[in-house]
What does this fold into?
Amino acid sequence: MSDPTQANRRERKRLQQLDHLADTAWALFEAQGFEAVTMEAVAAAADVAKGTLYKHFPVKEALLRHRFHRELGAVWPALRDELAALAPGRARLARFLAMQARWCEQQRSYLLPYVRYRLSSAERFDARSERSGMDRIFAGLIAEGQAAGEFRSDVSAALLATHLQFAHLATLLRWLSEDGLSLADEMARMLDLVCNGIGARP
Amino acid sequence: MSDPTQANRRERKRLQQLDHLADTAWALFEAQGFEAVTMEAVAAAADVAKGTLYKHFPVKEALLRHRFHRELGAVWPALRDELAALAPGRARLARFLAMQARWCEQQRSYLLPYVRYRLSSAERFDARSERSGMDRIFAGLIAEGQAAGEFRSDVSAALLATHLQFAHLATLLRWLSEDGLSLADEMARMLDLVCNGIGARP
DNA sequence: TTGTTTTTTGTACGACGTATAATAATAATC
DNA sequence: GATTATTATTATACGTCGTACAAAAAACAA
It folds into this structure.
């Protein structure tokens, strides 16, 4: 296991299996709904033992996460180019959130368990754990804005990003729980709150 | 059941039972730790069937919630008087958070499951559900600040309060997950972020 | 090939939370 | 005060989650 190319092969195979598991799970979710699909069913459909499934995806919501992460990864490069045309900082953030909102509207049925999962899992605070797609993107956009002087720099970019992300998740949760809200509007208001704060302008 | 005094008696008895259940549960938690105590054990210790316990406390964390709610209710009147001496808005909020931080430090071991529970339960967005102690207090402090012109009024007090509360929970979660942080400091910084936003001051 | 390490498997387990039919307790009606 | 209707409680069974672990299989190194 000292050979690096062997280790890479191993890792590539592992990633393939992750995709395989997440894909079969996704097919079941679409057919029967997230709640109705049990982990055993996913394992069976993927021709894998329960324990193996759990090893790679310790909770059911992690299957959603993998899928979303991959989807985001696929469109991110193009998105990134489009954002580059905008001023760093708030403008890019606003555009990103607007696009994200459209995507969320299509994933609405899977979003509630996912948002809950993200909110209650503390992994994002573990410095050693790899940041997920959204985490990294938020962090990047914040850091850019900070560098451009659009965001305050007396607080670390990581903390600002966390702050933004919680507000983001909270907005999603509210949108999911109440009817008749426009997600794009709510996201725009959220960004306004996060950037300007709740204090009255003097 | 049309007699209001009968209904009140009923309700009083129900509340007593809630307290009884939460108290016995709390005793077990202190003896064995939250995770180690099963719901069946709580039910047995309270001389009640499992189903009854679940009827009143649908998830284990709700037992913590009841306890915390009651504790807060006990000290709130005095706290409220003390806060009244301060200017409405940010000053009161800052003081309240500082006191809350001291209390949280004593409850640290129970706080992680509780914070996770609060974050992932969407009940606070259900307009029909009664707001919990902290919810109501945040909402009140925000509304006071809004009335005094310290907080912006182009956004509803409810939304501002939600924003604050998520930031609050996020800060708790971070404090619980990382070592060596001063909760009071983190709360102060959080309030600064919430009030002033992440945008650079012009 | 042989020996070693890592992964997968199968299965059992404890706890959560749900559901339900039978039973007890409480309120309302006569 | 006895009777009926309502509501709360009980006991129990159930499905699922997520964990644990020993046995088997696969991948790797020699």
